[in-house]
Amino acid sequence: MPSGNQIILFKGKIMVFDNFKLNPLCLSIMLLTGSVASVQAAVTADSSVRQKINVVTNSNGSEMVHINAPSASGVSHNKYSRFDVNNKGLVLNNSSQSSLTSVAGQVAGNRNLEESGPARVILNEVTSNRASSLQGNLEVAGQSAHVIIANPNGITCNGCDFINTTRNTLTTGKPIMQYDDLKGFSVQGGTITVTGQGMKDNYSGYTDLIARAIKVNGPLEANNLTVMAATNDHIAIENNVVVAKGKTNTSNPGVGIDVTNLGGMYANKITMVANYDGVGVRNAGEIKSLGDLTIDSMGHITNERTMMADNLLKLKAVGDITNNGKGLIHGSSLDVAAKNISNSGTIKANNATLNADSKFYNQNIVNAQGNMLINAVDFENNNGFISADNNLTIDANRVSNTQSQAIDHNITSVDKGLASGAKMTITADQLVNHGTIFAGGDMSLEADAIDAKHSNTIAYGNIDIKTPGKLSTADAFIASRLGNVDIDAGSVSNAETTSWFWGLFSSTDNYTGEVQAAGNLTYKVKNATDNYNVLTAGNKLAVEAQGDFDNFANLTGLNVSLTGDQIVNYGQVLGLASIDVDAKTAFGNGGALVSLQNIELNAPQVANTGVISGAQTTIYAPVYKNTGDIKGSFSVVGHLKPEQPETNQPNVEEVEVENSGENTKVARTIVIGE
Predict the structure, then answer these.
(1) What is the number of other CB atoms lying within 10 angstroms of the CB of residue 430?
(2) Segment 300-320 mean pLDDT
């Protein structure tokens, strides 16, 4: 015979009877006529515990729990064999007085709280093996409180909402109690799922989802949201922060936090933590924060759709971070750190720092409106576009920048390669540029070896290129639009060599490179060099070779100076104001030296088979041979030019001259030291 609190549906109305006994005959008649239907309670107290909660059904079909009196620390510990919230809603009564609620209207006071007063924390622990389903509003009557639902079997939220709560925590952990005070949770399994109509918790201060695995297949809205996937002996909430303090269980579900294409997280602040070895985070939906967004994973982080933060967006993974295809990662400030970082989507920020312990790989768009810093062991930009409106700095053991399409040296805009609005800095052991590197300000490229074949290197400020090894410049275009260019290389190579049949046949193709500077151009080479690079300076062009230097290209500047061991010119050297050549062993000209003003040659031996044309040409050489054409005023001095000119007395020296050229004016005896 039914007794105690009974829920009866009679003629479409729900009736609640306290301590009511129904005559069996009456009950049988009502059941036979269909006038009554049993209603299963969504919330059932654990009958095995001494301190039992009191559950009632309100007149509108919602349920209400008269919670237990709190401990001295303010924790009301309530145990259930079943804890669900139906679409009518659930009230947790935290008031000893009658109060008005949104879910159930006016409700009676909770007599359990008459002596203790309201609870600070309402802990709802499920002790059976039944998972919880939350499909309606959960409201605290009376004083607001921190509501905790702890169910190791799992929790599903489909249209759940929270009213009059300070904080809401859903967890599959078992509460850790000490002297009736809640110290945290032990999480060893279980899944929290947000699906369908999702979860709304916009009015409480904090929202926590703590489980071994969390799946978001619907919208999740909160103010300050923490999502933690963990298996840990002790997870606590300290200073409003969820922290894992205990021993981690290494059980690995692969993806600990999974946001599907139907899911989304929307909050003022979002913190996501995958806290045990190898567990990852996957987002195929939307994760948007009006403040900070932090994701910390002991495994991989994969983004296939949208991650956005109005403030800091911080991604940290022990494994890899991958932004795929249509994926967008966008933060005001971006901080990304992982073993490998791979981007085929879009990454944007005001300021960005990206650190890869191993490889950084990009084949689409990475942009910062301010500054960008990229650190990696291996950096590769494959037909992508990495740009910063201010400074871009790349530091890696190996840097590779390549483009699939042919390089256009007459570019007017940049949409591939590496670009900065201000300074560009690249430091590497090996730098390979087969694309475009552009800087709106200064540019600094420094590596042990630089391969710049078939590339553009362009800056509006100064360009500084340094390598103690080889600089390969076949079909390279290096230009400073408004500044100076300083190249300091161990050697410069302009040729590409291809061999077949184990070296029995080989061919060498020379691709002319070009270096331009609006101001000064300094071209330093430590080893013997055959130069096919066209060098052009708006002001001074200085070629400084520590070995032999053979020139096959056009060298142009207002003032041109060439220094080296043996210098041979087969190209054209044009110095509008002056040309100065200083060779330690010999200078030979089979091309053209042209200046509107002065030409000065200084070498132990000088031979000309080409053209020398200047208003005044002076040759300092003990040995001089001319079979070419010399135009303009011309004189030969029979010794090298002294570093410190003597002024005490004139010297007269003889010079060995062999001359068969045309239009040549030779002074066999020259007075020097004036």
Answers:
(1) 17
(2) 98
